[in-house]
Amino acid sequence: MSDTTPIVTWTVPDAKKTVTVEVSVSDGKNSPVVLRQGINIQTGDGQPPQVHKNRSVRADTPPKIDGKVSLGEWDKAAKQSPLIDLRHGKMLVQNDHQYLYLLVDLTGDTHDDPISFDEGDHFSLTFDVDSDKTITPNEDISYGYVLAAGTGKPVFVLSYWLRPNVLTTVKKTTSSLGIGFGPSLFSARDHRIWEFAISFDELKEDTEEWSSWWTGPKRIGLRTKSAEPPFDDSHPENFTSDFHNLIEIYAPN
Predict the structure, then answer these.
(1) What angle do CA 231, 234, 235 make, to 5 degrees?
(2) Cβ atoms of 128 and 219 closer than 8 Å
(3) Do residues 183 and 194 lie in contact, with contact meaning Cβ atoms separated by under 8 Å?
(4) Could you report the per-residue pLDDT of 16-47, keeping only the tens digit for each?
(5) What CA–CA distance (Å, rounded) separates 118 from 122?
(6) Are 214 and 198 in contact (CB under 8 A)?
(7) Taking a C-beta distance cutoff of 8 angstroms, is the pair 174, 159 a contact?
(8) Which of 16, 77, 86, 146 is least surrounded by CB atoms within 10 angstroms?
(9) Is the omega angle on the peptide bond into residue 236 within 30 degrees of 0, that is, cis?
(10) Whole-angstrom Cα distance, residue 84 to residue 87?
(11) Is the torsion defined by CA of 161, 163, 164, 170 positive or negative?
């Protein structure tokens, strides 16, 4: 760790234990962020879902990344079969030639907790950028957020994986995050919504070279956490140390 003051601390489940990430401002030496073993946290109800494979759909009109599921934005993606089932909701996927769009629709999280690493709602999103099922240092990405000084508002950031359970310090991202609490296609009851636009440039996709779309799967690990109702889900389990069973997203037909 660098000797700079940590901005935030949050936890990431790792099998039957929990590890803690301390994020510090870069000191110019690219000091790593180390995930340290912490205290057990109660996970959500139910068994871990099976490894999912899902196909994206072409976004005729890009969704507005605002944490709201507006009419028509995600209808086409919602018709894909099978959908990606999460323990407390669903994930929808669509794309254009600039972004991969993800909707993490947590219909089971019906309490509007603050966005907080330790005492509220939280997420982390990992990409196996080279899709090799192993952690490639300084290439594979973990998206998250820091809380802005003064306002406390979440700021979307990325880190690079260095090795299992170890990340670089946070960096700026050209991708976008929308955080909301409201109804969706899957539930009229208000619930937590995470919405993402992930830049294909950051995923090292040269879209000008595509004959149609990307080849092979985009491989994703997702963590979602809620204070009330209490759950802390990883899809798949252990993805902070093992990339073999990540969710696989294929290009549109």
Answers:
(1) 130
(2) yes
(3) no
(4) 344 444 444 444 444 444 443 332 323 334 45
(5) 8
(6) no
(7) no
(8) 16
(9) yes
(10) 10
(11) negative
Other beta carbons within 10 Å of 211: 5
Q: With contact defined as beta carbons under 8 Å apart, do 199 and 81 qualify?
A: no
- The pTM (predicted TM-score) of the whole model is 0.81
> What's the alpha-carbon Rg for the chain, to the nearest Å?
17
- Examine the pLDDT at 2 and tell me if it is beyond 60: no
Q: How far is it, in rounded angstroms, from Cα 89 to Cα 97?
A: 27
**Phi and psi of 99, rounded to 5°?**
-135, 150
Omega within 30 of 0 (cis) for the link into 230: no
User: Where do the domains of the chain lie, and which CATH numbers do they carry?
Assistant: 53-250 (2.60.40.1190)
| DSSP designation for 170 | P
Cα(213)–Cα(233) distance, rounded to whole angstroms? 31
Beta partners for 198? 100
The pLDDT of residue 209: 82
Model confidence over 107-142: pLDDT tens digits?
999 999 999 988 899 999 999 999 999 999 999 999
Render pLDDT for 192-244 as a digit per residue (tens, 0 to 9).
Answer: 999 999 999 999 998 888 878 999 999 999 999 999 999 999 999 999 999 99
* Res. 60: pLDDT tops 80: yes
CA distance 49 to 237: 9
Structure tokens at 198: 């992930």
> CB neighbours (10 Å) of residue 180?
17
The residue behind tokens 């990405």 is 141
- Residue 5 — pLDDT band, cuts 50, 70, 90? very low
User: Token digits for 134?
Assistant: 């192993």
Single-letter amino acid, residue 219: R
